[in-house]
Structure formats: structure tokens, C-alpha cells
Amino acid sequence: MSQTTERTFAIIKPDAVAAGCTGRILARIEQEGFRIRAMRQTHLSKREAEGFYAVHRERPFFDSLTDFMSSGPCVVLALEAPDAIRKWRDLMGATDPARAAEGTLRKEFGSSIERNATHGSDAPETAAFELAYFFRGMEL
Ligand code: ATP
Ligand code: MG
Prior knowledge:
Blueprint: E1 5-12, H1 14-18, H2 22-31, E2 35-42, H3 46-52, H4 62-69, E3 74-82, H5 84-92, H6 105-109, E4 118-120, H7 124-134
Antiparallel strand pairs: 1-3, 1-4, 2-3
Helix pairs in contact: 3-4
């Protein structure tokens, strides 16, 4: 296991923000040893959500997913930790909250495979793309 400090990109999705769970999720982020390097609340337009999830544009759930992601404010974050990408995905749990392990964020805060509370980059290349999509170099 690599212990290199790494950055990942995370979103507290509109379902979790609307439910008033932002603070509890931020508390978990800090408790689990991530450094918050940048953070902003934003309300994505449909086009911005489509650009962000462009890799999924051929999937049947793309239109519904981008409607959901643009339905209200979300919180975007740059997180830093050793092995941040893997560590954050482990903390989120499985995509479908019904299959997510006990103690994970999606288990606790997600309500469906679409409305699953959080997002996390899945590889160094996607983390680089996603961080740059939301943050200027100066903010990081
Ligand atoms: P994310 O990229 O948001 O961190 P993930 O990597 O676990 O999640 P992906 O396969 O990249 O999962 O899917 C992106 C998002 O699309 C999911 O988080 C979820 O909100 C939505 N999604 C995935 N699969 C489905 C599905 N079968 N039906 C509806 N929505 C889905
Ligand atoms: Mg993904």
C-alpha cells in the first residue's frame, strides 16, 4: 500500500446537502484524517453536471443523474491524505447504499443508487480532471 500523500475530488451531493447532512459528513472527513484543501458550495447547472459526468453520457441513467446533480446545491471538496483516492472511496462505500457496508457514508446518508450522498474520483487521472473542473490552481 502506497503511503504517498495524494489528492482526490469529492462532492457532498444535493440529496445530502438538502437533508442537512453537510456538517456530519465534513466531521467524518476530518475524523478519518483527510485535510480539506479547498471547499465550496455550488449549484451545478444541467450543462455543468453533464460535463462533469460526461464519461456516463451513454448510460441509461445519465439524464436522471444530471437532473439530480443540478437539482440543488452541493459541496465540492479537494481532499488530501495518504492514499486519498482509495481511502475516500472506502469511506463512501458501494455505489448502491443498500449494498454499502456498515459505517460508510453511503450506508448512513444515501437513499438510492442515484441519491447516494457523495461522489469520489476513481483514479489519479479522474481526480486530476475533476479537481481542475472545479478549482483553480490558486485555490489549491
Ligand atoms: P461517483 O462517480 O458518483 O463517485 P461511483 O463511482 O460509485 O459514484 P459510477 O458508476 O461512477 O459510481 O456512477 C456515477 C453515479 O451515477 C453514481 O454515484 C450514482 O449517483 C449514479 N448511478 C450509478 N449507477 C446508477 C444506476 N444504475 N441507476 C441510477 N443511477 C446510477
Ligand atoms: Mg464514478
